Amino acid sequence: MQIPNYWQHTTAKSIPSTVKLHSVFYDYTHPGDGVLDIGCGCGDVCDQLVSAGFDVMGVDVNPEALKQASLSSKAKVHQVNSFFLQADTTTLPFANETFDVAIMQAFLTTISTKECRCELIREAYRVLKPKGYLYLADFGQTWHSKEYRERYINDLPITKEDGSIIAYDQETREAAYIAHHFTEKELVFLLVENGFEIESFHNDEFTTRTGNRVNGFVVVGGKVS
Length: 225
Hints:
The chain has helices at 6-9, 44-51, 63-74, 114-127, 146-159, 184-192; strands at 34-38, 55-60, 82-86, 99-105, 128-139, 164-168, 175-180, 196-207, 213-223. By secondary structure, it is of the alpha/beta class.
């Protein structure tokens, strides 16, 4: 129930960037830290972090988005501190213990299976330095919304997972991929079972790519040696 390589071939303008970086990020980082933005899209958050003095590497599967990110960065005076690379996020092309911080902004929602999400978290763990941090911001299940309650229930025979829905291409209106909304317990155990301890957990509210307001979570996990 997913268009093969949907995120790799969709247009850059169709890649959402609605979830903003939470201020808690700065409580666990310092200017000069090396940050890996996993699923960076068109590089909006990368630009924000470089402007704040961080050294940033953005990775994504979409070449058009990365081209847009690079062009945007080069138009600014801080481009020497940001780099962009096309990569498979399950096998990152970096050595062990390379980065101080890794971030995933509304990225795991696009990963349709628990097994693959665990693989991604373990890979983030691998490339983080000892005592490094993983910052996550993602969508939470929103059962009080009639629209999402119906979608969770009606799409379950296809998604096979509570909290998952079928997402549609905004241009063609065809089914594109399965999006997953998390519970607090789910996110906590996703990190804890794959090498992290929860340092910070915030409830929030996010805007989806279609303009809906849904529950959201912002989590900081510390790498456990």
